[in-house]
Write a structure and sequence with these properties.
- This protein is of the alpha+beta class.
- Among the domains are: 76-124; 126-185, Roll (Nucleotide Exchange Factor Grpe, Chain A, domain 2).
- The protein has 5 helices and 6 strands; from the N terminus they run H-H-H-H-H-E-E-E-E-E-E.
- The protein has helices at 4-9, 14-25, 35-73, 77-99, 103-123, and strands spanning 126-128, 141-148, 157-162, 165-167, 170-173, 175-181.
- Strands 1-4-5 form a 3-stranded antiparallel beta sheet. A 3-stranded mixed beta sheet has the order 2-6-3, with no helix packed on it.
- The longest helix is centred in the first third of the chain and has 39 residues, at 35-73.
- The chain is elongated.
């Protein structure tokens, strides 16, 4: 067995021998390019991939946010494109009314425009709330007046002051209605 001084004479420090012995005991190689170097390279590559994936995720979030903001900003464009011809017809009807005394043709023009608007609303999933002969429903009706009407049961809708509308299954505006009440006899 060699002494501590013999190792120093051979150019190997005693601390290096102790370190090398610990690595061998742990099952790791000491030579350059060994397992610790491979693990360090793998770790470095994994860290690079992680940074790349984080950057891609960040870019995806930013792009998605921009696309959502743009979609929300321009969500009404299809409805507006459909409304513009109706608006044009209204302007034509006003112009015709200013140049004519024929109220019947003006009335027919407004009826046609109203039908055009109703079709447009329906094509966008917006339908009027049923009121005729319906029982009062606070989820879709807003009672503006109660009125005693002979022969009509209390709680039934007897008139409408403003139509209500639903978009698919959600109330856009409740129908403002007149509701029958029990007569004061």
């Amino acid at each position: 067995m060699t002494s501590h001084d013999d190792h120093d004479a051979e150019g190997i420090d005693a601390g290096e021998i102790e370190f090398a012995g610990q690595e061998e005991a742990a099952g790791q190689e000491v030579e350059p390019g060994g397992q610790p170097d491979r693990l360090a390279r793998k770790l470095e590559k994994a860290e690079e991939r992680l940074l790349r994936v984080q950057a891609e995720l960040d870019n995806f979030r930013k792009r998605s946010r921009r696309e959502l903001e743009e979609a929300l900003r321009y969500r009404e464009i299809d409805l507006l494109r459909d409304l513009l011809p109706v608006h044009d017809n209204m302007l034509r009807a006003i112009e015709a009314a200013e140049n004519s005394t024929d109220t019947e043709s003006l009335l027919n023009g407004f009826r046609m425009t109203a039908q055009q608007i109703e079709k447009l609303l329906e094509s966008h999933g917006c339908k009027p709330i049923e009121t005729e002969g319906a029982a009062f429903d606070p989820a879709v009706h807003d009672a503006v007046l109660q009125q005693a009407v002979p022969g009509v049961p209390a709680g039934q809708v007897v008139g409408v002051t403003n139509r209500g509308y639903c978009l698919h299954d959600r109330v856009v505006r409740p129908a403002q209605v007149i509701v029958a009440k029990e007569s004061d006899s």
